[in-house]
Structure formats: structure tokens, C-alpha cells
């Protein structure tokens, strides 16, 4: 995989004024204005309006709308609120908070209005202040329902707010074990026509949270959690007395959009690669999957005691985005504003309802299993068959050596040397591996554009084909890292920065150390190169960065693409790579890449270290194991080698290393390889052999098996169970422990074949 070497894009903090009364009422945060460091406050205010009484809908007025073998849907035509009842257990899920403890003093009058509304939203008044978001909700605006129409499987409803001229059309559908809520693009209005003698504030929609408190519960019995997609997965346990207040998680699905990054605060949390969230309370749970428009949504969550007595988690659909508008040709001066045009598309979330059946208690494993089924049903992912555990061997080929007068090519692992590394690994017993060649491009790892031909000092195209043929003779697959197409260092491939670079809404070229390439230009170059890659006899590409893990809007007039269109471009590149080369892997891949890949590289194994997170769980790994293999960060670059190894064993990963034939000191000749600080394969061959054999012993026979259980047995001791009955118990403590009938040594693990 290619690491992003140059840090964050240039940014500055934007400081607004947020009063204490607003904080006590609500913080409405997203990637444009989130208070991520507790040092920067959002430019947001509460809409002034009459104070409607905060109340929950009367369930006795709800009408039967649709039902199937498992669920019954009822709805209130006057508000659109609904309930879903399990026919098997009688459990009820509500689109609004549970009425228990409604009168709790933590539920302020302002918050009760939020809690009872079918949706919350925020908007701007462009003729008043272009960077100030105003928060409101349907009830606070005195909104009305002007249409309620039952359908075959649900209902359609139209919300109108005459005060500001907004119309929000919504559709709710009942599925086999889910309800899907959707804001329709067709009929959405965010503009009011004023008489000529009245001033038009030019109010425009910025974002919506639809049924934001669906399933919301208090922490009275403390039997529940919120699930957020941070890293492998994180839980916020229900706690009646939680330290700290106004804890809020808000992260954009598929990460920040670089087209809006200039002078905006960017997230330092893990990017959200899976558009999922969830909640468990007592004997019921709900798993949310943002199914349409996820590239324009945030996942937002707050535990009880933060803004009310309720725990809640919801998507927030974005319609306009903050950006820096320059006012001079040098683009040094300007102001922050929001995109004038609305980004319209259907926005849908599917809520899977889960209740305790057959005496099986609900936990995060249950949610992950339902998401696994979703991936199989909606993306066509299939269980692996006869899968082998393979060492993921990344070879760093070469780079540019920085010289006093001119630069030169720095070979680190030639194709002949690569064959020697493979021979030595085979000799010590590493029989199965996949090889990903990094830095094989014409000018090496840190230079972008003009990937072909393979440099002669590396072995040339003939040398690469010879190496691929040799690897195939040993049953080994060879992949080339192709994430470099995301950037261009100069004029290679006919690239011109001012013509072909990615542009933000202020028309500035997006640059890190190198220029970010327009997605449409990138796709053309990428497809042109596929035939040459095919001639090398390789098995596929390892993709990443702007092809699978980074998603941007492009305002370059020659290559305009929305974030949604950029996602479609990336998906095509995956599909065409698989068609041309036979296989494809991805580093830190987003959900839309999973249907194409055979391996997921650099999957996060830890979280973003938010203080309010209570537990880290392998949600992503449980969902993916048995559908694809995955690995974590390179073992030889880990800060804590032993703990990283144990985490891989616990989470069902495969081992991964990055090595060179050259001595590690040779890498110092390049200014751009600082992250590769210990790579000489001779220094690591014994560890690679040892780790491979330990992984093979522990996990070799479960590569095509689902994870069916995971739990903490005691502090620092975890058990993972597979569908064939195998159990792995890992002890992270500095002393041995006894877990049932098993003794596990300090910083070690045991394998229980029979599951007894």
C-alpha cells in the first residue's frame, strides 16, 4: 500500500461564536464545523422561533400501514412518526425516543422539541451571514404535513415549513427485517418566494437528520450500547453517570472531501469506511446502514447525559458544504461560505431490527453478522472456499535519490533481488504468500505519474515479467501498487496542473507535496495503462488512496465530478482492473470496493482514542471474515510488535510485512521514505517465518469460516470463536491467566480446536 506521506492538506481553524445557551440546547456538528479538538467552536446558532411544547407522539393514534411475516409497521399521519413491532417477540422499535424518563430534568424544554420532531435540520441565510448555520427542527418551525399517502409497503409523506419555504418529501418502506427511510430528491424544495416589499434572507438547506432519535433509550438500566464505525468498531456503553458532558461523535462517511478542505478543519479521527452504526438496548437492537447518498452523510452519536437523557445515533445528510472563497488572484484573502448550489440525490438509511430469539443474547457480534448478511445480499459478496492463509509480502522497489544538482534513481529491491527474497522465504517454510510490489513505477515510490515503463535499474518490464513468471511457478500471486495514480508530480502522462488538477469550489488546485489529479483524468490514464500492466503477467493491482479509500468532489470545469460520480469512477476502475488482470486488492478500502477485492490491506485495528469510547470491538473483522482476507499495518513498522501480532491473532487477520533487499540505511538517501525505518528482509526473515507459522497454526483452517463469537473473558483476555468451533483465547496481560480450564501465558494465546 502507498502511505500518504505529506500529512494533512493546508488548513486553518475557523473560530465562531457559540453561546452557552446554545451548547445546553444542541451542538449540530459535521465535517465542516465539528468541534474536534475542543479548541474550535462552530459558527452555529439556534433558530429564533416560537416555543412549541415538546411532546412525543400519541401511539394510540398510529394506524396500521404494512406488515409481513416478521414485522408490523404503524404510523402517525400527522407527524410521520412510526413504530415497528416484532410479531415473534412483541418488541417495539420507535422512530422517536422511548417515553420512559421523558420528564427527566436533563431533558430541557429546547431538547424536548428536538426529541419529538420527525427530523432536525440546519440552514443558512445567505443574505445575512454566509458562514453561519442555523439549527432548527420540524416542530420548532411550526411545520405541517401536507400529504400522507400509504403505499404497498409503507408510506410517503410531505413535510412543509412555510416560514422558510422548505418542503421535505420522505418515503418509509417496510422490508423483511428492516425499515428504509428515504429523503427524496424529487420534490425537495429549500427556497421561498418573498413579495417585492419584503427582504429575502435567502434561506437554504445545509443538512437534515431524519428520525434522528429512532430507537433512542435512556441509560437507566445501563444494559445497552451505541455502536460507531470508528476503526474496527467502537462502543459507547449506556452509563447513567458518565464523566464529561456534550460528548459527540461526528464523522463523514468515506472521510473528508479535499475539495472543501482549504481553511477548514479536517478530521484527525479514523475515516469511516463502512456506512454503519447501531444501538442495543435490553432485548432489542437496531443496525443502521446508510444505503443511498452515503457519500454525503455523517454518522453522529451522543451518549446519555451529553445533550439529553437519551443515547442516540443517526446519519446526518449533507446538502451544502463550507469552503473558502478567495477574493484575490493569489487566493490568499477571502471568506468562508457554503456552496450555493444544493447537492440533490435520494438519501436513504436501512434500519435492521434485531431482537432476542432462541435465547441468544444480542451483542455487537449480532450486529456485525447482520451487516455481513447485508454485504452478501446487496453487494453479492460470497463466502470464501478453500482459502489459504497467505503472508502479505510488500516489496519496496525503488525511489528517487535526492542529489545536490540532480536526482537519480535509487533501487532498493530489483526484480532479481525480489526472486532471491522469495527463494529465502520458501526455504524457511513460508509456502503461501501474496506479493505486492511498491515503488515499481518509472521514477520510484515518491514520484507520481508516468508509471510505465518499469525502470531498467529495477529490472525493466522484462525483469518484472520474469519475476511474475517465477512467482507463479511457486504458486505465488504478484500485485503492483497502483495507488500512485491519485497524484502527479509534473507533466507525465500529458498532465498539466492547471488543466488536469483537482479543483475546490473556490477554483484552487488541490496540492499536497504533489498535485491531486482530477478523477476523470486519472481514470483515462489508468485505463490506458492496464494493457501494459497485463503484458507483465501480473495477477492484479493493489489500489488505494484516490482509488478506493479517498473520495473527492472535483470542480475542475474540464472534468467536473460530484462526490457520488467520483465513487462511480472508482468502482469502474476496480471492475475494469479485475476484468483486465484477474484480481484486485485494496488498502483501507471503502464499502463500495468490497465486492471486487480478494484482500483488504491495512484494515484499521484500533480506534481514534476518543475519551468517551468505552470498548473497541472487531465489528469490521467479524463482518468480513470468511468473505475476504485482511491484514493490518506492516508488522515490522509497528510501535508494539508483540501486541500488534496478538491483535492479528485475536481479530483473524493475516501477517503483513514490507521489506527491501537493500539495507535499511539506503532508504535515508530519499527524503520521502521516513516511515520505512526497518525494512531489510534479512533482519526480519526469521520473524516472518515465525509469524507465518504461528498464524497458520492458529488460523490456517478458518480463513473461509465466519467469526461467530467474540467476547472479553476478563480484563485483557479475549476469546474469538469460528463457525467450525475453533476458539482462540488471547491474553494481553503481563502475567498468565486462567480462563475456564485454560491457562494462557502472559502476552500469549492458546488455540482450542474443539471449542470446549
Structure description:
This is DUF5696 domain-containing protein. Pfam families: DUF5696. InterPro entries: DUF5696, GH. This protein has 756 residues and is of the alpha+beta class. It is built from 11 helices and 43 strands. The strands form 9 sheets. Strands 8, 9, 10, 11, 12, 15, 16, 18, 19, 24 and 35 form an 11-stranded antiparallel beta sheet that branches. Strands 1, 6, 7, 13, 14, 17, 20 and 21 form an 8-stranded mixed beta sheet that branches. A hairpin with a 4-residue loop joins β39 and β40. α4 runs parallel beside α5 and α7 packs parallel to α8. The protein is globular and about 75 Å long. The two termini are 39 Å apart.
For the biggest sheet, the summary is: 11 strands, antiparallel
Q: Which structural category do the helix and sheet elements fall into? A: alpha+beta
Low-pLDDT ranges: 1-42
Provide the helix percentage: 10-25%
The outline comes out as globular
User: What radius of gyration results from the CA coordinates?
Assistant: 27 Å
Number of strands: 43
* Mean pLDDT, all residues: 91
Number of contiguous helices: 11
N-end to C-end Cα span: 39 Å
Amino acid at each position: 500500500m502507498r502511505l500518504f506521506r505529506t500529512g494533512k492538506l493546508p488548513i486553518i481553524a475557523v473560530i465562531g461564536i457559540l453561546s452557552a445557551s446554545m451548547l445546553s440546547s444542541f451542538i449540530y456538528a459535521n465535517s465542516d464545523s465539528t468541534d474536534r479538538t475542543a479548541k474550535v467552536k462552530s459558527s452555529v446558532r439556534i433558530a429564533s422561533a416560537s416555543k412549541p411544547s415538546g411532546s412525543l407522539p400519541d401511539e394510540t393514534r398510529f394506524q396500521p400501514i404494512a406488515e409481513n411475516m416478521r414485522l408490523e409497521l404503524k404510523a402517525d399521519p400527522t407527524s410521520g412518526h412510526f413504530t415497528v413491532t416484532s410479531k415473534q417477540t412483541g418488541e417495539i422499535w420507535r422512530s422517536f425516543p422511548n417515553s420512559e424518563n421523558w420528564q427527566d430534568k436533563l431533558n430541557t424544554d429546547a431538547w424536548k422539541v428536538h426529541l419529538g420532531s420527525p427530523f432536525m435540520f440546519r440552514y443558512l441565510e445567505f443574505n445575512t451571514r454566509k458562514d453561519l448555520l442555523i439549527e432548527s427542527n420540524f416542530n420548532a418551525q411550526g411545520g405541517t404535513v401536507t400529504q400522507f399517502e400509504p403505499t404497498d409497503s409503507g408510506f410517503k409523506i410531505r413535510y412543509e415549513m412555510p416560514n422558510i419555504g422548505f418542503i421535505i418529501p420522505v418515503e418509509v418502506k417496510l422490508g423483511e427485517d428492516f425499515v428504509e427511510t428515504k429523503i427524496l430528491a424529487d420534490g425537495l424544495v429549500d427556497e421561498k418566494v418573498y413579495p417585492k416589499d419584503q427582504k429575502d434572507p435567502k434561506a437554504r438547506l445545509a443538512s437534515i437528520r431524519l428520525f434522528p432519535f429512532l430507537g433512542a433509550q435512556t441509560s437507566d438500566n445501563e444494559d445497552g450500547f451505541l455502536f460507531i464505525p470508528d476503526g474496527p468498531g467502537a462502543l459507547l456503553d449506556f452509563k447513567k453517570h458518565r464523566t464529561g458532558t456534550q460528548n459527540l461523535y461526528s464523522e463523514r462517511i468515506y472521510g473528508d472531501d479535499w475539495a472543501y478542505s482549504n481553511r477548514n478543519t479536517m478530521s484527525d479521527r479514523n475515516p469511516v469506511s463502512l456506512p454503519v452504526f447501531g444501538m442495543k438496548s435490553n432485548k432489542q437492537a437496531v443496525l443502521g446502514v446508510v444505503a443511498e447518498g452515503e457519500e454525503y452523510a455523517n454518522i453522529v452519536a451522543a451518549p446519555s447525559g451529553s445533550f439529553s437523557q437519551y443515547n442516540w445515533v443517526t446519519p446526518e445528510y449533507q446538502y451544502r458544504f463550507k469552503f473558502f472563497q478567495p477574493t484575490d488572484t493569489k487566493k490568499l484573502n477571502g471568506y468562508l461560505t457554503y456552496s450555493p448550489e444544493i447537492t440533490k440525490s435520494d438519501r436513504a438509511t436501512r434500519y435492521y431490527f434485531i431482537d432476542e430469539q432462541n435465547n441468544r443474547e444480542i451483542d455487537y457480534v449480532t450486529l456485525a453478522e447482520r451487516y455481513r448478511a447485508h454485504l452478501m445480499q446487496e453487494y453479492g459478496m460470497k463466502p470464501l472456499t478453500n482459502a489459504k492463509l497467505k503472508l502479505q509480502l510488500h516489496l519496496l522497489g525503488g525511489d528517487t535519490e535526492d542529489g545536490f544538482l540532480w536526482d537519480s534513481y535509487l533501487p532498493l529491491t530489483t526484480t532479481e533481488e525480489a526472486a532471491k527474497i522469495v527463494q529465502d522465504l520458501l526455504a524457511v517454510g513460508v509456502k503461501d504468500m501474496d506479493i505486492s510490489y511498491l515503488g515499481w513505477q518509472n521514477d520510484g515510490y515518491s514520484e507520481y505519474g508516468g508509471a510505465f515503463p518499469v525502470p531498467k535499474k529495477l529490472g525493466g518490464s522484462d525483469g518484472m515479467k520474469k519475476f511474475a513468471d517465477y512467482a507463479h511457478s511457486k504458486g505465488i500471486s504478484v500485485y503492483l501498487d497502483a495507488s500512485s495514480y491519485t497524484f502527479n508530480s509534473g507533466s507525465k502522462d500529458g498532465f498539466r496542473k492547471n488543466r488536469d488538477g483537482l479543483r475546490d469550489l473556490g477554483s484552487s488546485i488541490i496540492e499536497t507535496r504533489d498535485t491531486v489529479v482530477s478523477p476523470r483524468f486519472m481514470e483515462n490514464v489508468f485505463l490506458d495503462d492496464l494493457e501494459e500492466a497485463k503484458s507483465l503477467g501480473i495477477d492484479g493491482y493493489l489500489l488505494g488512496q484516490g482509488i478506493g479509500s479517498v473520495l473527492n468532489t472535483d470542480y475542475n470545469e474540464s472534468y467536473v465530478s460530484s462526490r457520488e460520480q467520483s465513487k462511480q469512477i472508482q468502482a469502474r476502475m476496480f471492475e475494469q482492473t479485475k476484468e483486465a488482470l484477474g484480481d484486485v486488492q485494496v488498502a483501507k478500502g471503502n464499502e463500495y470496493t468490497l465486492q471486487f477485492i480478494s484482500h483488504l490491506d491495512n484494515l484499521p485495528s484500533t480506534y481514534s482514542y476518543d475519551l468517551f469510547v468505552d470498548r473497541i470491538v472487531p465489528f469490521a473483522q467479524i463482518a468480513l471474515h470468511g468473505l475476504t482476507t485482511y491484514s493490518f499495518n506492516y508488522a515490522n513498522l509497528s510501535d508494539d510488535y508483540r501486541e500488534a501480532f496478538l491483535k492479528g491473532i485475536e481479530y483473524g487477520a493475516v501477517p503483513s510485512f514490507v521489506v527491501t533487499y537493500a539495507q535499511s540505511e539506503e532508504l535515508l538517501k530519499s527524503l520521502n521514505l521516513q516511515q520505512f525505518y526497518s525494512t531489510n528482509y534479512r533482519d526480519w526473515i526469521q520473524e516472518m517465518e515465525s509469524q507465518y507459522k504461528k498464524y497458520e497454526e492458529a488460523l490456517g483452517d478458518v480463513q473461509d469460516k465466519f467469526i461467530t463469537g467474540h467476547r472479553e473473558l476478563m480484563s485483557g483476555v479475549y476469546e474469538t470463536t469460528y463457525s467450525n468451533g475453533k476458539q482462540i483465547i488471547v491474553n494481553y496481560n503481563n502475567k498468565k491467566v486462567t480462563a475456564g480450564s485454560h491457562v494462557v501465558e502472559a502476552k500469549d494465546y492458546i488455540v482450542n480446536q474443539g471449542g470446549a
